[in-house]
Design brief:
The complex is a heterodimer of chains A (115) and B (110). Chain A is built from no helices and eleven strands. In chain A, 38% of the residues are buried. By secondary structure, chain A is mainly beta. In chain A, a hairpin with a 2-residue loop joins strand 5 and strand 6. Chain A is globular. Chain A starts with a strand and ends with a strand. Chain B has 110 residues and is mainly β. In chain B, strands 2, 4, 5, 9, 10 and 11 form a six-stranded mixed beta sheet that branches. Chain B has a five-stranded antiparallel beta sheet with strand order 1-3-8-7-6, with no helix packed on it. In chain B, a hairpin with a 2-residue loop joins strand 6 (53-57) and strand 7. The chains are: A mainly beta (115), B mainly beta (110). Chain A binds chain B through residues 33, 41-45, 48, 55-56, 91, 98-101, 103-109, and chain B through 30-31, 33, 41-45, 48, 50, 87, 89, 91, 94-103.
């Protein structure tokens, strides 16, 4: 399997612009997770899906962030409008079972820089 | 709230043994993972403990004490490639989500 695929790998944008991050989970995995990693706060869960349905979005910082999973093989995380404090590495991860039952496999991440 | 504590940095010598500790105070605890993350890369799975005791996997071992809210990762026969960040992550909310510590940056020296 190709593993979790994320695009783009790097994104540089200006404050106020819309940013869309993309993720393809491992085929057959029913769970998909979006994380954000910064030096100050470490790795934080933003939202996760089970069978394409959002289960927990309590980590989404504010209304500027939205995530969708239109089908089992694709998810997006959108930031509109972007701000400099959104600069971070965004990871997508997937797993066969839920958080307490299976390891999560992480994609390579998208390094976002908002100027 | 969830509170997971790890040392920020550790340094050890090639060939030696190092123990990375993790203490936690979380609600609905249901297990603990250790992940390894090399600089600029994604976290990768190392171990999972749900019951008290020691889990051994090659050079790496992980221990959990649920009553003490404590875990450690033991790395033996350290190699230079073990230089990385080690993330402790608790399954919280009754198994609903994974909450990560901020990680321990391990540097292995000659």
């Amino acid at each position: 399997d190709a593993g979790v695929i994320q695009s783009p790998r790097h994104e540089v944008t200006e404050m106020g612009q819309e940013v869309t991050l993309r993720c393809k989970p491992i085929s057959g995995h029913d769970y998909l997770f979006w994380y954000r990693q910064t030096m100050m706060r470490g790795l934080e869960l933003l939202i996760y899906f089970n069978n394409n349905v959002p289960i927990d979005d309590s980590g989404m910082p504010e209304d500027r962030f939205s995530a969708k999973m239109p089908n089992a093989s694709f998810s997006t995380l959108k930031i509109q409008p972007s701000e400099p404090r959104d600069s971070a590495v965004y990871f997508c991860a997937s797993s066969l079972w839920g958080p307490g039952e299976d390891t999560q496999y992480f994609g390579p991440g998208t390094r976002l820089t908002v100027l | 709230g969830q509170n997971i504590d790890q040392p920020t940095e550790m340094t050890a010598t090639e060939g030696a043994i190092v123990q990375i500790n993790c203490t936690y105070q979380t609600s609905g605890f249901n297990g603990l993972f250790w992940y390894q993350q090399h600089a600029g890369e994604a976290p990768t799975f190392l171990s999972y403990n749900v019951l008290d005791g020691l889990e051994e996997k090659g050079r790496f071992s992980s221990f959990l004490s649920r009553s003490k809210g404590y875990s450690y990762l033991l790395l033996k026969e350290l190699q230079m490639k073990d230089s990385a960040s080690y993330l402790c992550a608790c399954v919280t909310g009754g198994g609903n989500k994974l909450t990560f510590g901020t990680g321990t940056q391990l540097k292995v020296e000659l």
